[in-house]
Amino acid sequence: MVARKFGTGEKVKPASIYTMFLRIFEHARTEWKALITALTCIILISMLEFVVPQLTKYTIDTVIEQKLFNQLFYIGAGIIGAALLLGLLRYLSTSVMAAIGQKVLYRLRNDLYRHLQRLDVAYYDRNRTGDLMSRVTNDVSVLQQLISSSMMQLFTDVFTFTAIAVYMMFMDWKLTLMLLATFPFMILTTRVFGKRIRSSFRKVQESLADVSDHLQNTLTGIRMIKSFTAEEYESGRFSERTQRNMDANVQVTRLRAAYEPIIDFINFVGLAIVLVFGAWLAMKETMTVGTIVAFIAYLRLLQNPVRHFSRILNSIQQAAAAYERIVEVMNTEPEITDKPGAVELPSMKGHIQFRDVTFSYSGNRDGEVLSEFELELQPGEVTALVGSSGSGKTTIAHLITRFYEVGEGSITIDGYDVRDVKLDSLREQIGIVTQDIVLFNGSIGENIRYGNQNATDEEVMAAAKAAHAAEFIESFKEGYDTQIGERGVKLSGGQKQRLSIARALLKNPKMIILDEATASLDTESEQMIQTALAELLNGRTCLVIAHRLSTIQQANSIYVLENGRIEEHGTHTSLLARGGRYSELYDMQFPVANGH
């Protein structure tokens, strides 16, 4: 199976099982004391596995033959003692490996999440949120069983198999070789079924990601679903996805149901060889009955790892399929990073220039949003962008913050090309307030403090007061500890916007970007927000993106954009007097003015 690099069309080779185990070991090697304890348990378990067959051989060939009644107690005690020690060692090894497994999963999941935080905004444009959630939760969890129990069983079985095979060669090399002749058939069967099972498990994981993605979309949009009475429609779509997941799981079960009986059949062939050939040797008196019984016991011990592996194979292949999906994310490198030699951007004054900037979200000229674009923002002034939807206004804000990279041309801030400065030093000096307000499920205080994690309670309250949010916050019974629900569902639009302004104020940025900050508010809320914004914009360079022309009449400069180009610019008064595109937009919004 050929995978594709996540979020691109580039083909990549699937991650090998060897690579998966190597990466797991890299995470686990810091727990070397626990690993040594587990390895010691494995060796002791394998040694104890030899005891019972040897006691059986001794009982048949010596105790029974010589009628040594006084030895029976010791033989029984030896078998029970070995069983107790095996139980204790298996408990210890399983507990230790489970602890190691959980630590490995903890680190792997954190590494994956940390890597997701590094990836560009464009990456999230290309990939579904639900699928990413599934990789961090479901796919990492699939590795848990493999690391916690299956890996322990696998290591034990490999060691036991090797030790017993070597010992059986000393007991009777001809009989052992006849037995081992069946193993190539097991290996071939495992390879054939392993590839198919792994491919099927990948379909299981992908279909589960579809279920997760649909669930995330519908639960966050539950109000819209109910408003359109689309419950049955969405239930049907969900059923289709769970049907695909069910079919994928059934396919895995069928492959497993076919694989395990074949392995069992080959094991019985090995048993038949030992039993028939061993009986023939015993009848010719070249092998004792006790040796045959012991050999059969060792055969069962030799075949147990094979049986275990046939069952562990499902865990390994399922984990490998999940690991491939994790690696696809981990191997995706961010396209926008600090270049070698990038410098810290000094305290921003706010002189921003776009020079011959060309940009396309698709990366080709057919979908250019900006073409040879020129723009200049003066420090300490308010610059407004207006124009039709799709004219490139929000794109300009995204390019200043380097959420996306320019295709051609350059953007400079105070003479520094944004590509030559460190991303953190750029973004920490820019505050953004948008129409689509993002609030996290938590308290009001926590959401405001997101602007500055080290802010004191007094600073949080001062920011809320400056944003004209303190009054409604204090009206709540729990004040700043009030839980606002997912995405601030318990607050009105105006309240959420004032919280976002308070958050921006607490950040204390050098530059502010207002992207349709008041577009969805009623007149009363807008007036209150405008008052709060006046506090926010004081002494800062500001870029305002607006459809409502009433919000930008006091701007120092207004640029009218159409199709990625500046059609006209000036002040509110001069643009109205010119009677161009800005005047047309103004007349559409304020028809009563009739001639302004």
TrEMBL record:
GO terms for cellular component: plasma membrane. The keyword Nucleotide-binding applies. InterPro entries: AAA+_ATPase (IPR003593), ABC1_TM_dom (IPR011527), ABC1_TM_sf (IPR036640), ABC_transporter-like_ATP-bd (IPR003439), ABC_transporter-like_CS (IPR017871), P-loop_NTPase (IPR027417), Type_1_exporter (IPR039421). It is a multi-pass membrane protein. SMART domains: AAA. It is found in: Cell membrane. SUPFAM superfamilies: ABC transporter transmembrane region, P-loop containing nucleoside triphosphate hydrolases. The chain crosses the membrane at residues 32-52, 72-92, 154-170, 176-194, 262-280. Coiled coil: none annotated. Keywords: ATP-binding, Cell membrane, Membrane, Nucleotide-binding, Transmembrane, Transmembrane helix, Transport. Residues 36-318 form the ABC transmembrane type-1 domain. Residues 352-588 form the ABC transporter domain. GO terms for molecular function: ABC-type oligopeptide transporter activity; ATP binding; ATP hydrolysis activity. CDD domains: ABC_6TM_exporters. PANTHER family: ATP-BINDING CASSETTE SUB-FAMILY B MEMBER 10, MITOCHONDRIAL, ATP-DEPENDENT PERMEASE MDL1, MITOCHONDRIAL. Belongs to the ABC transporter superfamily. This is ABC transporter ATP-binding protein. The lineage of its organism: Bacteria, Bacillati, Bacillota, Bacilli, Bacillales.
